[in-house]
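Team,

Forwarding the record for the chain on the shared tracking sheet. I've put the sequence and predicted structure together so nobody has to dig through attachments.
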Amino acid sequence: MRKIIYLFFSLFFAFFSLLNAQIVETPFGKAEILGLKNWSLQKVLDLLAVKAPGKSIDKCAADLKQIGFPDASVIRYFDKDGKFYSVVTLVEPEFAKFVKYRNIPSDTLKDVPDWTQGIGIFKNNPMEFQIGLAKYKLNQISKDTADFLKDLDEKKIKDFWQFISEHNHERDKELAIWILNNDGNYLNRVIASSILINFPESDLVWWILADALRDSDARVSSTAGLVLEYFSKNNPRNVNWEPAINTLFYLINGTNLFAFNTVLKVLSSTKVSEYLVPKMFSQTNGYLILSYLKANHEIEKNLAHDFLVNITGKDFGYNIAKWENYLVNLTK
């Protein structure tokens, strides 16, 4: 029976493979697979069919991790026809050493009493929490957002804005940084990440939030990502990334693929020093960013191009061979 199922899914995906070998048709729509260097797409599909029969490659990143990929992400978009288009990014097992999440601190503290309101909004109104971070200090919620979120509680968003604005002192920054580095309570780390939105002028805050993208708890890393996205959009400036180069190395080479787009945006907006670029790509020659540059999906493709142009000062367009040759020579 197992062999029959295996054969069925192998034939299913092979039959529906598109002209571009990195795209397959699944029950949920088209799925484009990025991050492959040594593996073929068929090898990935064969492994999935054997180890997780019946699971679609674009269904859940956790499934892909369970069958042996050190990291994986699945991001779904709507295509022009209103159907799902999924971008699945993988880290092959051979590159497992580049996936390095932060260990959760062993000491777990009680919820910070002064953060009760923020914790309550995060727990009970998660969408308002996210919109609140994205629109902080903009003091407006777009009509499109309001239409999309029919049940959005604008008062909760304004309450959250008030909470964040009241924690904009140096002591708040110091406590938030300490919590992120030392507290095992994920709720405190989530609120600590959000409070740091008040301090875009501090390089240390950018470093701490970038490192929080490697937090083992996705609720913490996603909050840090929201704040960094806010910074890159509303407070772009030069940042000295040298003290955080190890963090950047792991992020740009496969740790927390769900944050990869955010990392590209942030580094594009902060002018990475030229001498740090070889250190980011040492040992990998930028295989993951090149995979993005090869993408059919325009968001990933353009993010990769803009990132490479911004950090290198070169522009080879979308010529993969030229970029690959440049990165190889850069890291020699």
